[in-house]
Automatic annotation (TrEMBL):
Upper classification of the organism: Eukaryota, Metazoa, Chordata, Craniata, Vertebrata
Region Disordered: start-end pairs: 1-50
Chain positions of ANK repeats: 83-115, 116-148
Sorted UniProt keywords: ANK repeat, Repeat
SUPFAM superfamilies associated with the record: Ankyrin repeat
Repeat in keyword set: yes
Protein name from the UniProt record: Uncharacterized protein
Ranges of compositional bias, category Acidic residues: 21-36
Amino acid sequence: MESEGPPESESSEKSIFFSQQEEEEEDDNEEEESKEAEETATINPLLPPALTGDVEGLQKIFEDPENPHHEQAMQLLLEEDIVGRNLLYAACMAGQSDVIRALAKYGVNLNEKTTRGYTLLHCAAAWGRLETLKALVELDVDIESLNFQEERARDVAARYSQTECVEFLDWAGKELT
């Protein structure tokens, strides 16, 4: 009588194949988890509180000597990406005005430019972050600063149809003259 299943040798070959395939999948998963852990480990510890508006969290890092990132807090704050943007630019894009005010107390240069001449004010204007623009103007940033295209923050706001920002920057320009 014939067996209904595959011959014994074929069945054992399949089980060997599937067990090897499972091992390879496990190895792939472990590699992915390792990469994710590396990426997580390299995230600037100031970034999450800066993006979420956690001013207290930022202050703890800067002011608590027991914090593991206290010693390099200023270096982490000023660390730049390939186009010259530091953590302050991320806070501007996220509209975190309180974070900008808090970090200004640590003596950062709020008029610093990227490699293409964009300032924090240009960034906030492009993203339509009116409250952030107001905070930056209160902190005495240069509203006449030009980027590589000879644009002021007001011009960038106009280019991106950020009407409220244009109106505010027009008003601020008149107030300062």
